[in-house]
Design brief:
Strand order of the largest sheet of chain B: 3-2-1-4-5-6
Radius of gyration of chain A: 20 Å
Shape of chain B: elongated
Order of helices and strands of chain B: HHHHHHHHHHHHEHHEHEHEHEEH
Distance between the termini of chain A: 58 Å
Strand content of chain A: under 5%
Mean pLDDT of chain B: 88
Oligomer: heterodimer
Strand content of chain B: 5-15%
Structural class of chain B: alpha/beta
Structural class of chain A: mainly alpha
Mean pLDDT of chain A: 85
Number of strands of chain A: 0
Low-confidence stretches of chain A: 96-108
Number of strands of chain B: 6
Low-confidence stretches of chain B: 274-290
Helix content of chain B: 55-70%
Chain lengths: 108, 466
């Protein structure tokens, strides 16, 4: 087995283990924000797309890279914004009556 | 920027990501955690933009601008009831991005006539990346279509479905392995990409709407694996780490969701719930369809609530469909003002994704200390006057405890039958596509109030105010 593969596997297994430990402590209450947060974080594949889009090897690769950058950016920007929007809504004691902040009224 | 500084920026970002996930262990620390992840992301992106291979920034700027606008618009305007759809779409974007980067890498090597020089490690990683990316993309689009109702929410089955799907899966995997030994076989590579796209569609087709929480979690995990494979292909540790975190999170959630339905992973994926294979045997064992249930009017239900000292609300997917979370909150605030105790019982698989109900109730400004998990609340039903079921079905079905023939037998459910009275808000007496009858609905202690949940709740509130 090549040393690069071994090193990569080390990183993968240890990170997966840390992830499992940390994530098993997230309460049911926050599972939706957890999902959108990990989604935003895995938008880090943006860094791979950036190199593909910007290195000018050939038109096809650049085009695919540009589409990939767009997709990954949607996940990063959208993921963080919506996670924060959700987390802002969780509060321990809401007001007794329904005077929710403006944003929360939508759809209601 | 020198490579070592780039690596330091990736290391910092990795640590910040893990701290962010740790912050999610409590609602108080969660927002600060997300801020850390945002800082980490910024560091990693700036570090990458200074990469020596990037020579043209024009298209990058355009793509990032378009992505930011779409991403921001989606997050600001999407209603909370549509969160499962949004999550499904973002998995699709993640999968597509991974697949495209993989194809771009391979094409670049082929184009330059250097495919032979792709190492075994890189080729294997590219194969996995493209396969998982492609199947995550189309699988998530299918999940999105099922949630939106573009595609029937009922399982779609045909003969030899599981065998052919498993065959295709391993065929695809075999092609990825073949590519390691024969990296110049471009046709095989693109055929693998095509089968990956087809697999996503075929794998989600037989899965019913009620199983969406597991499927969405699983696709989350696949998106993570695709990102990690990208990391192996590009030898980029932050991609491996983030992919592993995402993969672990999705995997853990899928296990939790399967457990909450007392079903194995394999059963969810290949079981095609309620397709007629399991249903006929059970239907005979249950009371004849719509036998004798107590239908109550809004006035009668209001009287029951007026006399109640304690209420437990059990929300389900029906609450999301009729956008009734604000109406629930209004009614319960009125109950609180009448000095009744109010609790919400949240089943792990209520709704169409993990935590779906919690987010909707949070949106309606219900404080989270009124929300209780299954284990925390199940002993309280015996001391409760009224249970208000809003669009939930399987999670309140006593057959899960009493009828070994039921397809949901063994699934942990709420002890609703122990409460004095249950008021069930339901659109109609149809059993729904799962085809499972619910004994709770025909129990003498249950009052069925049929109609749109939001409308019923609003009427209940105005009756109680009189």
């Amino acid at each position: 087995m090549s040393s690069e593969l071994l090193f990569g596997l080390y990183v993968f297994v240890l990170a997966g283990f840390v992830g499992y430990q940390v994530i098993s402590k997230v309460p049911h209450l926050l599972h939706t924000p957890l999902m959108s947060a990990t989604n935003a974080i895995s938008g880090i594949s943006l860094v791979g797309s950036l190199v593909a889009a910007g290195s000018e090897h050939n038109t096809v690769s650049t085009t695919l890279g540009v589409i990939a950058v767009t997709c990954a950016t949607i996940n990063v920007v959208g993921g963080f914004l919506i996670t924060d929007r959700m987390l802002r809504m969780f509060r321990k004691r809401g007001p007794a009556t329904g005077n929710a902040p403006k944003e929360l009224k939508e759809g209601g | 920027m020198s490579p070592s500084i780039l690596h330091v920026s990736y290391l910092a970002a990795s640590v910040l990501f893990i701290l962010a996930l740790r912050g999610l262990s409590s609602p108080q620390s969660a927002r600060r955690g997300i801020l850390l992840a945002e800082i980490g992301m910024l560091i990693a992106i700036v570090g990458t933009l200074l990469h020596k291979d990037i020579i043209n920034y024009t298209w990058i700027a355009v793509a990032m601008a378009i992505g930011s606008v779409i991403g921001a618009a989606m997050s600001v305007w999407i209603p909370m009831t549509k969160m499962p759809e949004r999550i499904a779409l973002s998995h699709a974007f993640g999968g597509l991005a991974a697949a495209l980067v993989g194809v771009a890498e391979y094409h670049t090597a082929m184009h330059a006539g250097r495919a032979q020089e792709i190492g075994a490690l890189k080729m294997g990683a590219l194969g996995f990346e493209v396969m998982f990316g492609a199947l995550t993309f189309t699988g998530s689009l299918m999940a999105f279509g099922k949630l939106q109702g573009f595609i029937t929410g009922a399982p779609v089955t045909y003969p030899l479905q599981n065998k052919s799907n498993i065959g295709l899966f391993f065929g695809c995997l075999g092609m990825a392995v073949y590519m390691i030994f024969f990296p110049t076989q471009g046709d095989v590579f693109y055929a693998m990409l095509g089968i990956g796209f087809a697999l996503g569609v075929l794998l989600v087709l037989p899965i019913g709407g009620a199983d969406m929480p597991v499927v969405i979690s699983l696709l989350n995990s696949y998106a993570g694996l695709a990102a990690a494979a990208t990391g192996f292909a590009l030898q980029n540790n932050i991609l491996i780490i983030s992919g592993a975190l995402d993969g672990a999170s999705g995997f853990l959630l899928s296990i939790m969701m399967s457990k909450a339905m007392n079903r194995s992973f394999a059963n969810v994926l290949f079981g095609a719930f309620g397709t007629g294979e399991a249903a006929p045997g059970t239907a005979a064992a249950l009371p004849a369809g719509g036998a004798s249930y107590n239908e109550g009017t809004v006035e009668e239900a209001a009287e029951v609530l007026r006399a109640a000292q304690s209420v437990i609300v059990i929300p389900g997917y029906g609450m999301a469909v009729s956008q009734a979370q604000h109406a629930v909150r209004d009614l319960m605030n009125l109950m609180l003002r009448n000095n009744a105790s109010v609790k919400y019982a949240i089943h792990p698989v209520a709704g169409r994704m993990p935590g779906h109900m919690n987010v909707l109730l949070a949106e309606a400004n219900v404080p989270y200390d009124q929300l209780f998990d299954l284990d925390a609340i199940n002993d309280d039903f015996a001391q409760t006057d009224v249970v208000l079921v809003v669009g939930a079905n399987d999670v309140v079905n006593p057959a899960a405890k009493t009828n070994p023939k039921s397809p949901i037998f063994g699934m942990p459910v709420f002890n609703v039958e122990q409460a004095k009275t249950a008021i069930v808000l339901k659109r109609s007496m149809n059993t729904g596509f799962a085809g499972i009858e619910n004994d709770l609905f025909v129990s003498p202690n249950t009052m069925m109030v049929l109609g749109d949940a939001k409308k019923t709740l609003t009427n209940l509130t105005s009756h109680l105010k009189e």
